[in-house]
Amino acid sequence: MSDSSEGQKARYQPIDSLASPRFAGVRTFMRLPYLTTTEGVDVAFVGLPFDTGASFKVGARFGPEAVRSASALLRPYHPELNVEIFNSLSVIDYGDAPVAPGFIEDSYERIVNFLRPLHAAGVVPIACGGDHSIVLAELRAAAEKYGPLALVLFDSHTDTWESYFGHQYFHGTPFKRAVEEGLLTPERSTMIGMRGPLYDSADLENARALGFELVTAGQMHRHGIFELPQQVLARAGDHPTFLSFDIDFLDPAYAPGTGTPEVGGFTTWQAQMLLRGLTGLNIVAADVVEVLPAYDQGQVTAHAAANMAWEILSLIAWRRQQER
């Protein structure tokens, strides 16, 4: 990890946009340096461009590229959290994992091998997908370092099905597989935002039976969002936590570019408030997934996803700032 101290700029930070315009240069997340080192690094943005675990619309393999492009507008100071991100963190863009399109289990192995050096060095990866099937590989890599993890999931689906067309690996099964593999501690985990038509009542009950706390979109719309973060924090405690943000948590009006959109979702502002309420969460890995640029308009979804990744990065910086 970086040894940067409070008030001192971190080793790796974005290009100065007052010296070089935002539309110039090779696209990396927030215009960070593209490096494949772990030395002096606290957080690494990574791309996981795999989408053949999807069941409906495909094309999220281009999500990392779109999010990187949209992230050029992000700036280093978070006014709501009062965090100068790069005073607390040294951050790079680590590039994309060498996935194998169409071969999910092979891609899992490649993703684990790609992430393993980051975790071994104590670097926090923030991944951009890709469909949500990739999270199983992310959890495998993180659990090698930290053991079973708490999960905070923002999603319109629980992704805890048993199988799909007889196959156990696709974007609707990763959290069921993760529990079976001992990668998660469901009693510390919360799934937020579930909604939309289901095949039957078991779709939600099976997730609860695994031990997850579910907070549906209907519950949140009826009772409000502002008390939920404290409930999530109390459940997770200080346990190492994986934060996963499926962009279909947002209503399609705010994120049309995704593979399985569900109406009745949340605004970008509501998502920001929920994330900002999670200050103190011990995030050891995170992702933003299911951005599908071919169905996006004016980079609306990509901008939303880039900002969610920035909110997560800010949470990590906030905790680091408090520790110092």
Describe what you observe in this structure:
It is a single chain. This protein is an alpha/beta fold. The protein has a single domain (29-323), classed as Arginase, Chain A (3-Layer(aba) Sandwich). 32% of the residues lie in helices and 15% in strands. It contains 10 helices and 10 strands. An 8-stranded parallel sheet has the order 4-1-5-10-9-6-7-8, with helices on both faces. The chain has a two-stranded antiparallel sheet with strand order 2-3. The mean pLDDT is 93.
What is the helix tally?
10
The total of beta strands comes to 10
Q: Globular, elongated, flat, extended or rod-shaped: what is the shape?
A: globular
Helix share bin: 25-40%
According to CATH, the homologous superfamily is Ureohydrolase domain
Main sheet?
Answer: 8 strands, parallel
- Summing up helix and strand content along with how strands pair, one would put the structural category as alpha/beta
Q: Strand fraction band? A: 15-25%
The CATH architecture classification is 3-Layer(aba) Sandwich
SSE topology sketch:
Layout: E1 43-48, H1 63-70, E2 77-78, E3 83-84, H2 85-88, E4 91-96, H3 104-120, E5 124-129, H4 135-146, E6 150-154, H5 174-180, E7 190-194, H6 202-209, E8 213-216, H7 217-223, H8 228-236, E9 241-246, H9 268-276, E10 283-289, H10 300-323
Parallel strand pairs: 1-4, 1-5, 5-10, 6-7, 6-9, 7-8, 9-10
Antiparallel strand pairs: 2-3
Helix pairs in contact: 1-10, 3-4, 4-5, 9-10
